[in-house]
């Protein structure tokens, strides 16, 4: 009787040890060891893993770049616009805009508007003036400038949206293929023990987790930048309307023209 009890305890201990050994095959390090052991056998897993790494790298790159760009634009926007309108001399205001960095959008919109107004004035009496009056010519230049600067803000947004939408499915592809590999292994060995399926199932779950870890930050970044861009677009439109009024009529709406 005592021998039977000892044998049962020993068998249970051995089973627990086997289960612990099998579960150790479900870690990330074991997955990478398996992928490195035979890259040809795990070709699909390699493709999925590399795609997710590239997606993650691109997402974090655009997240950092756009975060810095939006922070700089937001910080300087009010100062640039306020200084432009508070400068009493139009030439000094334009000179101030020319001194702004190349990635500052409000100054570029103002400069395009000023150049359009000056170009129209230089060609008074020509076919250009007959075809478009001053207001229409300035309005066209402003629309082009706002569209150009708005497009610059969209840089990387398509990548973030694509990664957020597709990364979970790419990870799911790795999951499905891993489970398929586990079924193939069961059919080949005739064993359905945890030791036989722990590795493939672990690889499948890890691929799913990686896909989610890649997608979630991309979605959050896309939503944050989308909202920040909408606020900037609104500032573009407001500034463009004021510029149109100023260069077309000589004063902003609500501003009393200076007596000459």
Write up what this structure looks like:
With 260 residues, this protein is mostly helical. It contains 9 helices and no strands. The protein starts with a helix and ends in an 11-residue tail after the last helix. Mean pLDDT is 78; it is low at 1-18 and 256-260.
Ordered list of secondary-structure elements with their pairings:
Layout: H1 2-23, H2 28-37, H3 43-86, H4 90-98, H5 105-122, H6 127-131, H7 134-153, H8 157-189, H9 194-249
Brief overview:
By secondary structure, the chain is an all-alpha fold. It has helices spanning 2-23, 28-37, 43-86, 90-98, 105-122, 127-131, 134-153, 157-189, 194-249. Helix 1 (2-23) packs parallel to helix 9, helix 3 runs antiparallel to helix 4 and helix 5 runs parallel beside helix 9.
For the structure shown, list the relevant keywords.
mainly alpha; rod-shaped
Report the β-strand fraction as a percent range: under 5%
**Overall pLDDT metric:** 78
The helix/strand order is HHHHHHHHH
Q: Percent range for helical residues?
A: over 70%
Whole-angstrom Rg: 32 Å
Report the count of strand segments: 0
**Helix count from the secondary structure assignment:** 9
Pairing-aware structural class of the strands and helices?
A: mainly alpha
Shape: rod-shaped
Described by strand count, sense and barrel closure, the largest sheet is:
none
Query: Regions with pLDDT < 50 over 5+ consecutive residues?
Result: 1-18, 256-260
